[in-house]
Amino acid sequence: MHEWQIRAAGLVLVLVSTLCFAQDERKLVEVKQAVSTPDFGYLPTYLARAKGFFTKEGLDLKLLVVGSRVAMPALMSRQIDFATAGGTLAPSLQGAPLKSVFYTFNTSTFQFVVRPEIQDPRELKGKTVVISTPGSSTDVATRLMLKKMGLEPGVDVNLLTSADSKARIVAMETRQAVASAINPDVAAQMMQRGFRIIMNSSEVFPVPFGGVSVHEQLLKENPELIKRWLRVQVRALLYIQKNHEETAQIAAKELKHQPDIARSALQLLVPKISAEDPGGFNEKSMRFLLDFAAGSLKIDPTKIPISQVSNIGLLREVQREMGIHCREGYLCK
Asked: With pLDDT > 70 as the criterion, what percentage of the chain qualifies?
């Protein structure tokens, strides 16, 4: 072969490679997902992004950190594709066209943390416990845990309200309060400073947790996009369950924690991820959630079908395509 032919062949290869790369880039579909805070509640998304799972599914993830007051109207107007289910539940119960499609955990994950000097739940009597916004899941879980410990909220213990999670920690550190229900990663940090976990909310508030919702219109117009996103999330959950150390390293980097804090938080969270039904929920736990949410809105929960707030059908399709055959979850059969 002549030198000019070799050069021409090489040029063709370069052009073909460039075109293929450009085509692959064009295949990536932008998807916008909102999270309320960069924490362990969204670990599957952060891990999947770090591992390239979204790219492998042809998705270009745009991860936005915004509060529910911003995310919910953005989801309603379809400026974003995925948002935290906690912020969409009440609107869904009131008729908004929003549906949850995925849940990271099969139960709530709040940790009831107390100051170092508290050795027994009975010592909380007469003391102050700091809670979140009245009616929120954190508030409800706190009250249920106190009752489980034999304490009547507002009677046996004083309640200090603070919507800001950082402010709740400061209240404990400055002795304005002796206890609070907080997320696992923050609880792991507090434990390093001598604070103690005396209960977790899964014992009293067994509801689907860490959920994500979409607009009904997206379900109708582009179910394949949702399925691709769901495959990423399920794959991430399975990866977390099997690869604790690497997950801890990724979590530490992505969520700005020390590796030992990430490991401790994972120990608290991994048992709350269903191995049999990753991403799903069972009817009993969802009914528990609806009873709590509908009650606060003065709505009869018995008149609310699960299909009004959640569409789990696409997750079931994805699970079957991935060789996962759940048995006990909602719509598994």
From this structure: 92
